[in-house]
Amino acid sequence: GMLKANTGLAVLDLRYNGLADGGVLAIAGSLTTNSSLSTLVLWECELTAGCCDAIGGMLTQNSGLGVLDLGCNAIHPEGLHAIKEGMIQNRHLHTLGLANADIGDEGAIAMAELLEGNRALTRVDLRRNDMTVAGVMALAMSMKLNTTVVNLSLDEEDEDEDIERKFKRDIAGICAKNKEKVDAAAAAAVSYTHLRAHETPEHLVCRLLLEKKKKTPQNHSLT
Length: 223
Description:
Radius of gyration: 22 Å
Structural class: alpha/beta
Number of helices: 8
Shape: flat
Strand content: 5-15%
Distance between the termini: 73 Å
Number of strands: 6
C-alpha cells in the first residue's frame, strides 16, 4: 500500500529478507501504479516461480523500474517464462539480475527469445544457472539481433567445451560492439546539445529560415 502512494522512494533493497512469494505479490501489486521506484533488489528472498506471474504483470504496467534483481531465488524456467511475457511489453527495465536462479538451458532459451526483440535491456546477469552449450548457443544466436545489451554475464568454466567458449566469445564481442554504438550515440547527443547551447541569435535565425525553406513546397514546373 505504501508503494502505491509513495512518490519519493527510488531504491528498495530487500535482500535476505525471507519475503517469500506472498510478500512479493503485495509489492508487485503496489508497483503497477508506482513510477518513482527505479531499483528493486529481491536477492535471496525465498522466492519461487509462484510469484513470477505477478512480477510479469507488474512489468507490463510499471513505467519507472529500471533495475530488478531476482538473483539467488528458485525462479526456474517456468518463472522466467512468466517474467518474459511481462518484459515483452516493458520499455523501461534496463538491468535484470537472474544469477543463481535455477533457470538452466530452458530458461536461457526463454531469455534468448526475449533478447531478440527487446530494446530496453542493457545488462543481464545469468551466472550460476547450470547452462550447457544448448543454452549458451541460443543466447549467442539471439544476440546477433540485439543492439542494446552491453553486458550479458555468464560463467567462464574450465570444463567448457570449445564450441561453448566460442559462443561466449561471440556474445562478449557483440556486447562490446553494442557498447561502442551506445557510447558514440551519447557523445553525438552531448555534442549537439553543447552546440545548441552556444548558438548565437544570428545562427538561430539562419537555422530557422533553413528549416522553413525545407518545409516549403518547391515548384519545379517548367511552365
